[in-house]
């Protein structure tokens, strides 16, 4: 079975994501929120579809600014559901708004979304999934696993023989301190 490390390099969309983002640790809350929104929107679709629409998501969700998205009301929800530049799924749009509100609450209690993640690290994937399902909307096992792998909390984003793997290790993702 081919891995992402086999087909992503050199691809116009997958290549840059694979080489510069996937598996590297994220610390900034808006960037973590962006990744969560993108992973949620990927459910049932290809990652290529999400990467192609990424700029549209960025514009539609006000640069993934947590405070702005958390304050969205019916007018913004309607705008998002009519925006062909993103995935127009009510459950996914509602989840993004709700999850931004939850993350802001976590920031108040823990100082940041990253600090909340660090507080719970390390956990096995199954426990992460339970925690995310309890805390957020639209966060099943695949979404949570990919979110955590793509942000450096769980291993497995790259094969050890992938050239990017060494750069990720140098960035000291959290899974290395488990």
Automatic annotation (TrEMBL):
Q: Does the keyword Zinc apply?
A: yes
Q: Which residues form a coiled coil?
A: none
> InterPro entries per the record?
Adenine_glyco (IPR005019), DNA-3mA_glycosylase (IPR052891), DNA_glycosylase (IPR011257)
One of the Pfam families matching this protein, by short name: Adenine_glyco
Tell me which UniProt keywords the record has, alphabetically.
Metal-binding, Zinc
> Which residues bind Zn(2+) per the record?
5, 18
A single BP term in Gene Ontology: base-excision repair
Gene Ontology MF terms: DNA-3-methyladenine glycosylase activity; metal ion binding
Entry superkingdom: Bacteria
- Under what name is this protein listed? DNA-3-methyladenine glycosylase
Q: Which organism is it from?
A: Alkalilimnicola ehrlichii
């Amino acid at each position: 079975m081919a891995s992402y490390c086999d087909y992503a390099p050199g691809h116009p969309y997958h290549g840059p994501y694979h080489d510069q983002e996937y598996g590297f640790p994220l610390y900034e809350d808006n960037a973590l929120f962006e990744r969560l929104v993108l992973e949620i929107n990927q459910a049932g679709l290809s990652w290529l579809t999400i990467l192609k629409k990424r700029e549209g998501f960025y514009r539609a969700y006000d640069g993934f600014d947590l405070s702005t998205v958390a304050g969205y009301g019916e007018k913004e929800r309607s705008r998002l559901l009519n925006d062909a530049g993103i995935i127009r799924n009510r459950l996914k749009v509602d989840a993004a708004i709700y999850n931004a509100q939850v993350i802001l609450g976590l920031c108040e209690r823990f100082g940041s979304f990253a600090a909340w993640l660090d507080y719970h690290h390390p956990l096995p994937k199954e426990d992460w999934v339970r925690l995310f399902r309890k805390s957020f909307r639209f966060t099943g096992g695949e979404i949570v696993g990919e979110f955590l792998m793509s942000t450096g909390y769980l291993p497995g984003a790259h094969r050890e023989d992938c050239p990017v793997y060494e750069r990720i290790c140098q960035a000291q993702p959290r899974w290395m301190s488990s």
